């Protein structure tokens, strides 16, 4: 191996270790796959499968990821198993410029029919994104982490959605094993 290659791979290794260490220290983890996910039913029609929103597949890492899409507007809810300090909600989107609104609740529960626009429980915060992005990650990030156990995502204009992540900070919980891919996706911020 030439010195250039050696230096290159050495830099990658050191950089990777440093970045992974940073993420480890912060203790970020995506809890969306652990949540009970539900879409409002009745007036708001959608195509696609809810499960594809938390299967870890999106255009940045899969050739044909599933698309979840409302006809126009709709609400998705994520009920977490316990209150957690949520630092960011991200949505990987495709076509259709759209606004996104996330509301954080504590003590709320899903209703049997999924109609949960005004769930019981205490509303702890709301974050809105009107950047109208397409084909990238949309970030909904509160100024500081919000402790909540119920996350509601409201969209309009029927955006294509590939993946939703709910990132929490927990210093006692290490990141999941796919550290390098996770670091790249977190710091790149785009597809
Ligand atoms: Ca997906």
Distance between the termini: 32 Å
Write the element-wise H/E pattern from the N-terminal end onward.
HEEEEEEEEEEH
Using the CA coordinates, give the radius of gyration.
Answer: 18 Å
Low-confidence stretches: 173-191
CATH architecture descriptor text: Sandwich
Q: SS-based structural class?
A: alpha+beta
- Broad shape: globular
Q: Could you name the CATH homologous superfamily?
A: Galactose-binding domain-like
User: Which whole number gives the mean pLDDT?
Assistant: 81
Q: Which CATH class is shown?
A: Mainly Beta
The biggest beta sheet reads: 10 strands, antiparallel
CATH topology: Jelly Rolls
Number of strands: 10
Helix content: 10-25%
Count, helices: 2
The tally of structural domains comes to 1
Bound compounds, each kind once, are: calcium ion
Tell me the fraction of residues in β-strands, as a range. 35-45%
């Amino acid at each position: 191996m030439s010195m250039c290659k050696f230096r290159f791979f050495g830099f990658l290794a050191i950089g990777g270790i440093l970045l992974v260490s940073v993420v480890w220290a912060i203790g970020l983890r995506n809890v969306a796959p652990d949540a009970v996910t539900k879409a409002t039913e009745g007036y708001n029609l959608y195509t696609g499968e809810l499960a594809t929103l938390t299967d870890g597949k999106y255009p940045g890492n899969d050739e044909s990821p599933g698309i979840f899409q409302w006809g126009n507007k709709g609400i998705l809810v994520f009920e977490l198993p316990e209150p957690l300090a949520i630092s960011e909600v991200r949505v990987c989107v495709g076509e259709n410029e759209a606004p996104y609104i996330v509301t954080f609740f504590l003590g709320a529960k899903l209703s049997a029919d999924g109609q949960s626009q005004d769930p019981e429980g205490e509303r702890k915060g709301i974050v809105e994104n009107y950047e109208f992005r397409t084909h990238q990650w949309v970030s909904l990030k509160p100024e500081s982490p919000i402790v909540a156990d119920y996350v509601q995502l409201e969209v309009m204009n029927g955006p294509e959605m590939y993946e939703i992540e709910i990132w929490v900070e927990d210093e006692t919980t290490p990141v999941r094993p796919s550290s390098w891919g996770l670091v790249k996706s977190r710091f790149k911020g785009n597809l």
